Amino acid sequence: MSVIVGRKSEIEELEKLYSSDRPEFVALYGRRRVGKTYLIKQVFKDRLTFQHTGVSPVDRSDDKNRLRTQLESFYYSLLNYGLEGFNPPKTWMEAFFQLSQLLKKLDNGQRMLIFFDELPWMDTPRSRFLSAFENFWNGWCSDHDNIMLIVCGSATSWMLRNISRSKGGLYGRLTCEIKLSPFTLKECEEYFENENIELSRYDILQSYMVFGGIPYYLSYFRKGYSFEQNADMILFGDKPRLKDEFNRLFKAIFDNAEDCKKIIGHLATRNYGYTREEIAEATNLPLGGGLTQTLSALAESDFIIRYSPYGKSQGEFYKLVDTFCLFWLKFVEPNQADASFVNDNFTSDIMNSWKGVAFEQVCWNHIPQIKAALGISGVKTSISTWNVKGEDGEPGIQVDLLIFRDDNIVNLCEMKFSSFSYSVDKNEETRLIQRVETLKKTLSPKQKAHLTLITSYGLHQGKHSGKIQKVITMDNLFA
User: Fold this and answer.
1) Do 150 and 115 form a contact (C-beta atoms < 8 A)?
2) In angstroms, rounded to a whole number, what is the distance separating the alpha carbons of residues 293 and 285?
3) Contact 379, 371 (CB under 8 A)
4) Which helix (H) or strand (E) holds 263?
5) SS3 for 275?
6) Nearest in space to 148 (alpha carbons), one of 11, 77, 49
7) Contacts of 411 (CB under 8 A, 6+ apart)
8) pLDDT at 323
9) Above 80 in pLDDT, residue 183?
């Protein structure tokens, strides 16, 4: 078996389920390109009894032909695994009956593993796929102790709605649910080491700021090239490896891909995000249940998060946390033809500004590592942003991460991406003290505010740095 980076707990759980003596029904979901298919095929490389992948919905407008295409593809998979004596199925009920007959033929008493990849693609409109699938599990699989069924999909909202949280025939039928998340910084480091690609932690951090810890994107990195060279090769020029990836990403997952892209595009314009009402106004999307469902689908697929900003009465905000989308919209979309864009511009002012925002997104994606560095892994916490409008021409306050702790400490986090140890001058010290004092006025008497610096290479100790209570470095984020 090839080396699988990370995923230790997932592999352990899958092996335990495979070794059980009862029927197992497993749902695996996660953002597209995160490595779901690779994980299953590597773990169970020689143990798959039957495997089928749904056909990508290239043309969502031609519903009748989409059903025919899905059934035709399923029939060919049945033939590949040894089905004989059956004509192509006309319905999903007939298709799953044929599968049950094939499995009867292949049954030798050992564990039989069935893997359906991209299950949501198989559920075309008016196809009655779900009722047939429910009947297959409830009417056949669940009566066979040696069956293990794994279903996988990138359309996370579909998987959750129809499988994990099903209110129909699959209610309570799942025996295990696994969400596969993007790599952490540490897992990215392990991946590059495994591929013999020499990159410093600083460059791995920058690669995360561009590619977001998505294994499929990292697989295009080549050894012997710098981070900048790899980024240019993968995203820019006449034939980039990920040409049109942003559009493909949404088209493959969402029926309303254009609406999703509008929302992501708007969220990319402000780091702490927008309310549902602000999103509706900016994108001209109706303020109703459809928008709520789309926002939930984007959050469930790890593109955005929903949170309540500290001190705000407007309710929930939605914030973009997918670094790949941010980089694509800001730089790839307008500059893709420039084959050396990253190499030529990576120290420019506009990219330095982006680095600050992208680093904050990386921090939001590594809250467990930040808590570990603070020594509070076991303490209950909540996180938020904080924005205060300035009065009488004075500048406002914007803090992109507050950590509220049950031990009555509030970490006011300043996140600073830097290529050297961070220095605090007199003006910066004054600004930081003002932030802490303003925050204190909003806290209860038993709470204390701790000024916390999260930066690449730590703090340069000087006469203006004494107010900082805790420093978290890039190495802490790699924990």
Assistant:
1) yes
2) 12
3) yes
4) helix 257-267
5) strand
6) 49
7) 374, 401, 402, 403, 405, 450, 452, 470
8) 96
9) yes
